[in-house]
Each structure stands twice: as structure tokens, then as C-alpha cells.
Design goal:
173 residues; alpha+beta; Glutaredoxin; 6-stranded mixed β-sheet; 5 helices; 6 strands; 22% strand
Length: 173
């Protein structure tokens, strides 16, 4: 019996070594504030200190209904990665709006990946090193694992309009 417990422990222990912490909050010396670092979920933004800027920006944004209707027909099969810095004013403005658009188009959140970076724009423990992004936030769009476009820092028009144009180009419209 002891041997069985020992063997089970040896099998399960390595799994914990590779587990990624979700919604990790660290103090960033360069940003001089607490930040989200690494993989995170939408729920992380609903907690302090992020709630103070997230909720007003999210609640106040009203996506264009006509564009949302078109986006619903284009988004199928698209994976999205958001790379942001919770210390960055652009991220604080655009990420809540982007998430509001995703809610409006009923985007399946299991296809969404959110990664918080430090002030050096890195999160090496999740594979984001120097040079991966120059500006935050960056919204990446993937089809079948291949990047098909991105929105960097701020949209040209609105987030939903830029998403629509990006996805229309993807399918050749």
C-alpha cells in the first residue's frame, strides 16, 4: 500500500510543477504598482485594484449594434489573445471595451487568452519575452493556429470596426 501511495505521488507531483498560476498579482518596481502578471481571466479585472478602472470603462462602452451583428458572422473559428499591461492607460481604456465587444458578439471565452505583462513588456514564465510586443494592449487574432491579424494599442476606428475589417480581409471580403 505504501508503495502505491509513493508511486501515485511521483506521478502527480510533476503535474504541479508545470501548472501555471492564473490571475497572479505582483508588485512591479518599474510601474510602482500591483499588476496582473501572466495568464489571467476576465474575473481578475473585477477585483481590486483593477476593478476601479475596469468596471467604469466596461459599463460605459456601447458597441455599435450593426457592426456587432456583422462580427457575429465573421468570428467563428477565430482564437484571440490579449496581451496587456494593467499599468498602461491604453490597456485600461481598450481592454474593457474589447471585452464588452466580445460579450456583445457572444464570443466563446474558452477561445480567449489574456496575458498580463510587466512594465518591460515581458512575462517569460508564459513565453512572452523581449520583442514579442512593442505596444500594449495588442489583440491577436488566430485562425487554425496562424496569426491572421492584430490590433495594436488603439484602434483606427472603433475596436469592433477594426475587428470586422481585419476578419473580412481574412476571408477575402
Amino acid at each position: 500500500m505504501n508503495r502505491l501511495i509513493f508511486l501515485l505521488t511521483l506521478m502527480v507531483l510533476p503535474l504541479g510543477l508545470f501548472a501555471q498560476q492564473i490571475n497572479e498579482v505582483i508588485y512591479d518596481e518599474d510601474a510602482e504598482q500591483d499588476i496582473l502578471y501572466g495568464y489571467c481571466t476576465i474575473e481578475a479585472f473585477r477585483n481590486e485594484p483593477f476593478k476601479a478602472w475596469f468596471e467604469p470603462a466596461y459599463n460605459d462602452y456601447k458597441p455599435d449594434e450593426a457592426t456587432v451583428a456583422q462580427l457575429k458572422t465573421l468570428i467563428e473559428g477565430i482564437d484571440i489573445r490579449i496581451v496587456l499591461g494593467t499599468w498602461c492607460s491604453d490597456s485600461r481604456r481598450e481592454v474593457p471595451r474589447f471585452l464588452k465587444v466580445l460579450k456583445a458578439i457572444d464570443y466563446p471565452l474558452q477561445r480567449l487568452e489574456i496575458i498580463g505583462l510587466n512594465r518591460l513588456k515581458r512575462a517569460p514564465h508564459v513565453g512572452i519575452g523581449e520583442g514579442y510586443v512593442d505596444f500594449v494592449p495588442t489583440f491577436f487574432f488566430f485562425s487554425n493556429g496562424v496569426e491572421v491579424g492584430r490590433i495594436v494599442e488603439t484602434p483606427y476606428d472603433t475596436l469592433e470596426a477594426d475587428m470586422m475589417h481585419l476578419l473580412e480581409r481574412q476571408i477575402g471580403l
